[in-house]
Design goal:
The protein is built from 30 helices and 14 strands. The protein is an alpha/beta fold. It folds into 5 domains: 209 residues, no CATH class; 143 residues, Rossmann fold (3-Layer(aba) Sandwich), CATH 3.40.50; 47 residues, no CATH class; 175 residues, 3-Layer(aba) Sandwich (Rossmann fold), CATH 3.40.50; 86 residues, Helicase, Ruva Protein, domain 3, CATH 1.10.8.60. The strands form 3 sheets. The protein has a 6-stranded mixed sheet with strand order 3-5-6-7-4-8, covered by helices on one side. A 6-stranded mixed sheet has the order 9-11-12-13-10-14, with helices on both faces. The N and C termini lie far apart (99 Å). This is ATP-binding protein. It comes from Janthinobacterium fluminis.
């Protein structure tokens, strides 16, 4: 603690001590007045002149000699007399009232100081009247001085009431107001007091207790209410400058708040986009500039029951008045306008008046409160390049360009990866370049397990048997992915383009002609992860679900630098049909969404299909490359046969030209080789021509192709002891 805080705390203690002394004195005075009135009433009773007070006309059942003066103060009448029966005799004049004990000079000085005590701060922020502030002090005294309970009982002339009540407050303080008990007045609305009202007991005579959070605040201890802490998480981020593109958004938020003024209701700030981390960084920077602590709330955590939600909203608003805080609500996964959590969130937005950030993908309308929307994206590629260069220094020469071209990270993530990779490299975990790439892949790996399957890319260029023209196209794809940073950023193409920054490729050809292998070769060459899209998990019969799944795919792959491989792409990218019913309309909507999304995708997307003619023509126009995978000729088939067997596999004398005469694709050749290997393992022999031709017969039958026994005569000749024909 600082010395200034210690001095303020001591001053507050002095203020509370003076306030308690003043309160005790007034309680003693009230008790003595009540006792004197009771004695006078008893004397008159003995003389036969008892005056009966009508308890129904008084807010608290008291002796008649004391009821009228209190009613006069409470209802602001001149005589203070309640309606009385016409025949009732006039009571004897009550004892003269003593002057009320004035506020001590110490309290008056504290109230006039530049740093007033928390009780006065609370009264101002919550809109408490002087009488309500004194009523709260009456309850606070019970927590600070347990011995004061005896005075409560004495002042109320009831040993069973050693606690504060509204009735006591109305008798004790100047300018009493009946409306202090209203649920709409601050004491009850802001939950400053707790009321214990068992059974049919009257509210005015029920026990009052100051809220624990408020007691600690008035004593000088300020913290977030523990009823909110299970739902909220403090946002604690390392202090670091934001890149200019994000800092400009934070500055705009600050300007809007400052222009609104201290007492105005600021708009809710909608932070748009898919990257929640960027939005959180921007919100934290804006709140920090305004001197506020930021708390994060997942929208799903909001209470669903109306009563619980109302309590949450009031407590949060109360905390906003007591603490410099702001709220960040994570609502990016909620459906606009629907969902079980939408109504609680809208209720919070409508009622809250403080600084509130809303994490959403697209702007929401009709929030019940003014809203300002900002696009909040990850740093621009040039900013990421600068961040990599700063984090790596001279040791990472050449790496910033490569890393910023393939990965899309925030500045804190870039710094963490750079530090981790440097430590791993120093500990013998490989070169800095290897560590950087490995750590970047690990950090950027998209969460696509439910919608896609990662492909272990093992194939290399030597495994791919294609005509040179097609191989040249594949190398161009690799070169364009590697050179994106230079062309788009260094040469300025990104400034002229807002779409088509990614690379979309179609691999067209029959099944088994090497399309999947070519995708593996590209992934291997680039060192990137490749995911095969699981169409059964992506395509949904429910309206809108397919688009949602595709959005997750593209967003995750784009941020992680992953390659998306759409096998059997014609199932997703088929031609739009004439609209005859609602099913056709929604199917066309899915295709239209894909058209827009694949054009906006900034990564590498590979579409594979053996039905090129079935694809929508609009897709073909948007593709950067179309690579045709022809049916392999005899020369390609011979090369495939020669490379199909692992080095450790025992083989006999194989006739590769004869095998190449079998009219099969590379995929079928792989199946034959594998099946022959299992036959050889069963027989305990090397892989021989008879086994291969036997496996080939099985493959032809599986494909329902005609079997030419002349091509497979080797097996018969060998069985009779002859040679190959």
């Amino acid at each position: 603690m600082t010395r200034e805080f210690d001095l303020w705390l001591a001053a507050n203690d002095n203020y509370l001590a003076a306030a308690l002394d003043w309160l005790r004195a007034r309680l003693v005075q009230l008790a003595e007045d009540e006792e004197a009135a009771a004695a006078a009433a008893a004397k008159q009773s003995r003389n036969g002149a008892l005056v009966s007070a009508d308890a129904g006309d008084s807010p608290v059942r008291v002796a008649g000699l004391r009821a009228r003066p209190m009613l006069g103060r409470l209802f602001h009448t001149e005589s203070g007399a309640p309606p009385a029966a016409p025949a009732a005799p006039e009571p004897a004049a009550p004892p003269p009232q003593r002057a009320r004990i004035a506020v001590p000079a110490a309290m008056a000085e504290a109230e006039a100081s530049e740093t007033p005590p928390p009780l006065l701060v609370l009264a101002k922020r919550m809109g408490l009247s002087a009488f309500e502030r004194q009523t709260l002090l009456l309850c606070l005294a019970m927590e600070l001085d347990p011995h004061i309970a005896g005075l409560y009982a004495r002042a109320q002339q009831d040993a069973a009431r050693p606690f504060p009540t509204f009735a006591l407050a109305l008798r004790l303080f100047d300018e009493p107001a009946w409306e202090v008990m209203s649920p709409e007045r601050p004491l009850r609305y802001w939950r400053l007091l707790e009321i214990n009202q068992p059974g049919a007991q009257a509210l005015i005579g029920s026990a009052l207790k100051a809220d624990e959070r408020i007691v600690n605040y008035l004593k000088g201890l300020n913290y977030l209410d523990d009823r909110l802490t299970p739902l909220l998480a403090a946002v604690e981020l390392a202090a670091a400058p934001l890149p200019p593109s994000q800092q400009s958004v934070a500055d705009s938020v600050v300007r809007h708040v400052e222009q609104a003024g201290a007492n105005a209701r600021v708009p809710v700030f909608q932070l748009l986009g898919a990257d929640s981390q960027s939005k959180l960084l921007i919100a934290h920077a804006g709140a920090e500039r305004l001197g506020l602590s930021l708390y994060r709330l997942p929208a799903e955590q909001l209470p669903g029951q109306t009563g619980d939600l109302e309590t949450f909203v009031r407590l949060w608003r109360r905390e906003s008045a007591l603490l410099p805080i702001a709220l960040y609500v994570e609502a990016a996964d909620l459906e606009r306008g629907g969902g079980a959590h939408m109504m609680p969130l809208r209720r919070l937005i409508e009622r809250d008046a403080g600084l509130l950030f809303l994490d959403v993908r697209e702007p929401w309308q009709e929030l019940g409160r003014d809203a300002v929307s900002f696009d909040a994206a990850r740093p621009a590629p040039a900013e990421q390049l600068a961040a990599w260069a700063e984090a790596l220094g001279e040791a990472g020469a050449g790496q910033p360009e490569r890393l910023s071209a393939h990965f899309n990270f925030n500045v804190p993530t870039i710094r963490q990866i750079a530090a981790t990779a440097a430590a791993d490299s120093a500990a013998g975990g490989g070169s800095l370049e290897q560590s950087l790439w490995r750590d970047s892949l690990r950090r950027a790996r998209p969460a696509l397990e439910q919608l896609a399957q990662i492909v272990q890319a093992k194939a290399g260029w030597q495994d791919l048997e294609l005509p040179e023209t097609e191989k040249s196209l594949l190398r161009q794809i690799v070169d364009q992915v590697k050179g994106r940073s230079a062309v788009y950023d260094a040469w300025g193409f990104r400034e002229r383009m807002n779409r088509g920054l990614g690379i979309s490729v179609l691999f067209a050809g029959e099944s088994g002609t090497g399309k999947t292998m070519a995708a593996e070769v590209i992934a291997n060459e680039l060192g990137l992860l490749i995911f095969r899209i699981d169409l059964s998990a992506v395509v949904s019969k429910y309206i809108g679900e397919t688009e949602k799944n595709l959005r997750k795919l593209f967003d995750a792959a784009e941020d992680g630098g992953a390659i998306l491989f759409f096998d059997e792409a014609d199932a997703l990218f088929g031609k739009r049909s004439e609209v005859k019913d609602s099913h056709d309309r929604y199917a066309n909507i899915e295709v239209n969404y894909l058209l827009q999304r694949i054009e906006a995708f900034r990564g590498l997307a590979i579409l594979a299909s053996n039905m090129k003619a079935a694809l929508d023509g609009a897709f073909l126009r948007r593709l950067r490359f179309i690579v045709n995978f022809p049916f392999p000729g005899p020369a390609e088939r011979a090369a495939i046969w020669q490379n199909i067997f692992p080095a450790r596999l025992p083989t006999g004398a194989l006739d590769y030209p004869r095998l190449a005469r079998l009219n099969l694709t590379g995929g079928s050749i792989h199946n034959i080789a594998l099946n022959a290997a299992f036959l050889a393992a069963e027989k305990g022999t090397p892989v021989t021509m008879p086994l291969l031709l036997d496996a080939a017969r099985t493959e032809f039958r599986k494909l329902e192709k005609p079997v030419s026994e002349a091509d497979l005569r080797w097996l018969e000749a060998t069985a009779t002891g002859g040679g190959a024909p």
